[in-house]
Amino acid sequence: ESNRLIKLVNSLLDLSKMEAGMLKYQFEPAELSELVKTSLDSLAPLAAAKNITIHNNVYTSLLVRVDQVRMLQVLRNIIGNAIKFTHEKGTITIEGNVRGDRVEVRVQDNGIGIAPEDIERIFLKFQQVTPAKGESIKGTGFGLATVRQIILAHGGKVWATSQLGQGSTFYISLQSAA
Ligand code: ADP
After folding, report:
1. CB-ligand 1 contact for 11 (6 Å cutoff)
2. Residues 96, 36: contact at Cβ < 8 Å?
3. For the packed helices 143-153 and 2-19, what is the interaxial angle rounded to 10 degrees?
4. Which atom of ligand 1 is nearest to 141's Cα?
5. 165 lines ligand 1 (CB under 6 A)
6. pLDDT of residue 113
7. Which pLDDT belongs to residue 34?
8. Is the separation of the CB atoms in 88 and 46 below 8 Å?
9. In sequence order, which residues have a C-beta less than 8 Å from that of residue 40 and are 6 or more positions away?
10. Which of 74, 86, 140, 159 lies at 20 to 30 Å from 149 by C-alpha?
11. If we measure between CA atoms, which residue out of 91, 104, 103, 96 comes closest to residue 166?
């Protein structure tokens, strides 16, 4: 319980620092596929516990300019949400594509989905969309607000598309370092 509280306080402090522009970032070129692999290492047990299949289709040699620690935080958050909001035996697909001078990461799930009227506000602080059928899924509601701050600091963009009951796709567009 103490550990959970310490984590909670730290993530709230992180977000406050980011919002105040006080967080220092160390940008360097990194291989997107490596970042995805590393983030999947820590999430694999969660996916396995729900029999969720993760297809990692990010091919090698996609170079992005990122703060590696913060970008791992982003990927863990978005992929972690995909696991959290997808039913047992669901599927998650991760892709990386070059779009001009940008690299676009796509995390697609076939989970509970998000209603159109909620899709903008999930990126705001403390916003949690009540899951369908009274399911209680624990969270804090500042994961995606933190993701948005980190991506903005990278000069990137993050957005989502979704269909309620069908699944969601989260997109991150980043500066290419190639
Ligand atoms: P939380 O700590 O609740 O996960 P986030 O800021 O990470 O907070 O997410 C905000 C809300 O966005 C979640 O509570 C959930 O309602 C919705 N959400 C995020 N990712 C997904 C997803 N992949 N599928 C369905 N809903 C999602």
Report:
1. no
2. yes
3. 40
4. 8
5. no
6. 96
7. 96
8. no
9. 54, 56, 79
10. 86
11. 91
